[in-house]
Amino acid sequence: MTFSKRTLLALQILVAVVALGIWHVGSSVPIFGVYFLPKFFFSTPWDVAARIVKLFSGTLIWKHLGITLTETLLAFVIGAGGGVLIGFWFARRPLINAVFDPYVKMANALPRVVLAPIFMLWLGLGIWSKVALGVTLVFFIVFFNVYQGVKEVSQTVLANARMLGMTEKQLFRHVYWPSALSWMFSSLHTSVGFALVGAVVGEYLGSAAGLGYMIHEAEGVFDTTGVFAGMVILAAFVLVVDGVVTAIERRLLVWRPDTAGRNG
Amino acid sequence: MPPDIAVSLEQIDIIYRAQGNAGGGARDSGPAQAGDYHAVSQATLVVHAGEFVSIVGPTGCGKSTLLNAAAGLLRPANGSVSIFGVPLAGLNAQAGYLFQQDALMPWKTALDNVAIGLEVAGIDVATARDKAEHWLAQVGLQGFGARYPHQLSGGQRKRVGLAQVLIRNPDILLMDEPFGPLDAQTRQIMGNLLLGLWAQERKAVLFVTHDLEEAIALSDRVVIMSSGPKATIIGDYPIGLARPRDAMDVRLDPGFHAIHKAIWEQLRGEVMKAYQGVSA
After folding, report:
1. What ipTM is given for this predicted complex?
2. A53-252 carries CATH number 2.40.30.10
């Protein structure tokens, strides 16, 4: 079936309008004297919108966003950096890999949320406990991808590079490194997403700033409007970050035949 | 040994060791053990400087194995490999190798793929790129430098591969069924391109193919390999056809048919043996 882009957009908007309409009617119009979506639990679309406008007219929201973004970026950079280094090291040193293999599997099997209290104990309520949580999530994704990337370098490309006169150092730079990076970037959406999850969950569990903190604080005083407003801002924030990641990916993986068809 | 002999394989044995057997890989010497695959046995082959030699044989007979030994990618269990009279240790630095499979770095553009051989040799990037432009033009790909391998057709990728090898000006060209994956017309065009480039520089070429017609059309000499295991060289035919040749037109030459008939009579037996080996 074929449809134009305009029809698609119209239908997509329609879905949003219907959903918001149901929310509005359920929370604001009594049907047989009953509110299907009581304001106390569901707030109303107008209240949430008004709250978002009010939040962005102040300066506090930018501070929260800035904190969450900083935590996300730090978690991603540190986790990805560690994943690349260790992934490379393990892939090139089979003995090291064999020795640590069960421990890596064990650490990866652990649900990372349980580490949050430990990190808070060690690193306090500031940004570093959230960064640490994000790092434990990002590290393993990047680590496994880089390991795979180095292991699965085409033997023909490798033999060709050797015949072209490359030394081990040059092989690293021109063959292993780009191959590993391409695997890392193929997991970019997932790892950035996890960095954000680490930051927000960490903030939610205990902090004094950030989007997770904002939502937690609103929840603490039964401010449903505040919780919903926080969720909408968080969702928009994730979409923006994802858009940036897609743009970076398009640029860096231009040589990959499947880049155009891929979606996060 | 006279220096005009570019490649000399003397009585080489190549054994693929089964995992767990002594040494592992094909690096060590010694007799074959249970589970090992004795790919090549007592093979002797000489390629003179400037000579175009093709190896023809049934599928899986160890043609590529022989080429890898000449490249230094595989070490024979017995026998010796000499390059211009010097025993080969490690990789053959005087040889360029054109692989059967795609061997271009997919993350580099065509231009960078060609230039890399000079860059890693310490030549500055600007000079290397200038030379790479020249070589892309030589293989008929002027203006394709910015493309990535996946944006090129199979034939174009082979052309880039050829430029990538030739830019280093190797004395010896090793080619492993380089045009194997291409369609018949493209193969003949590539054959002519190769003959044209070869006529300019007259490098020693060792060309592996399963296509006897291609081998006769291109070569000064065609050697026949027996079917594996323990494959060896069983025939050596000089090709007296006049040069310069056209890889397409030469096939209509009456001399071509006489040579083809003579070689095919011997080759057919080996091909049949290989097929029976597969179906058994």
Report:
1. 0.85
2. no
